[in-house]
């Protein structure tokens, strides 16, 4: 061997050792680089083809009869077949697979999305917008969860192209009712052979090993005023769009408002710099509209809650206890504009790893029970469900006694926090993340969101949202950056290879 050959050999093995030490195998690195160079454009085009389907659950139309879901599944089938991947349709679940083996790696995601208000988007939320804000891919589902689906498809294709040997079969499980009904998935998992390693791609990086429990307190009021009531009162109060979104709009209709009362409300509104208020006077009424910032209700710190802030500006007056007045009183007394339920009796608490319970009023609307407000809680470990429910009911009972307001109905639903600390694929996933991001101190995290990981053994989440970044899914400005989309393709390609070969 010549000196030059020896030096080249030493350099090669040095670079190989550095790659391994950095956290991924050479074959994972090579396939990840290939995936981006070969398929980044195709991945974006596929995302565009998927977001055009308005895969929103409808009460009046079953999924099997909904043409949007049928079209979405047909698009997935065509793309999977074109990429040389296996495709199976189980109704509410589509499975796209690569490889063989009795053991499997499950990549869990969903193809349904939350509603979107077209008036709040620069272009249609169901058309991929890559022009309005250069560097961003804007559409409903771009981050939650059609972007991750497109990424997973091309990660699998790159692995197939490169002929990377894998001990385990990789299965992409696309569930179609994650946003509305988990029962069909539970039924599916009763008979479907469960993968050995399960990874959801519906949350955050580095690796999510704990999720707060999705919980809700519904409070309904039905009070009425005497006919001909001539003092100031709230005729109506409403806001919010769906139950897992911090609302960005709310409105109140005031009757018999005086100039002094209006001045006090305006003065209170002026103290809030993050919410915007508009005052109009149609038909001898006063309408106050609030505009905030919508965000996923699991991350209320990233939003501005229009319902909570509108209730707050109305706190300058003690309104008569009809349905709207009682609801505003309840929101101001027990909910407030904070996000940790500090005003709601003794229910607030925190867990050392999972953090504090968060609270966000997401909707106020008319229901059969009356005017109903929906308080979304994300509860960590650290307090039992019976204890928390008792504290909620105690706070509500005390408030009713103190205010002499009788609630028409209450409903409490407390989800179970999910936590897995010893899944065998946590460390390999962290190694992938650290390698491609350079964040060497990245460790497992907990989130407020609730994914299908709860239904699978030893499931953890791996992206697509970076640490510290606001999750844009469920907002009226959902997007994924081009840079993040590219990075996800690298990490998902490497992740599949590394976990399939554990």
TrEMBL record:
Q: What is its EC number?
A: 3.4.13.-
Taxonomically, the superkingdom here is Bacteria
**Family annotation (InterPro entries):** Bact_exopeptidase_dim_dom, M20A_pepV-rel, Peptidase_M20, Peptidase_M20_dimer, Peptidase_M20A
GO molecular-function terms, A-Z = dipeptidase activity
Instruction: Identify the keywords attached in UniProt to this record, alphabetized.
Output: Cobalt, Dipeptidase, Hydrolase, Metal-binding, Metalloprotease, Protease, Signal, Zinc
* Cofactor(s) essential for the protein: Zn(2+)
Gene3D superfamilies, sorted: 3.30.70.360, Zn peptidases (3.40.630.10)
Region forming the signal peptide: 1-20
Ranges for domain Peptidase M20 dimerisation: 288-398
Q: Which parts pass through the membrane?
A: none
Q: Does the keyword Transmembrane helix apply?
A: no
Family label? Belongs to the peptidase M20A family.
Q: What is this protein called?
A: Dipeptidase
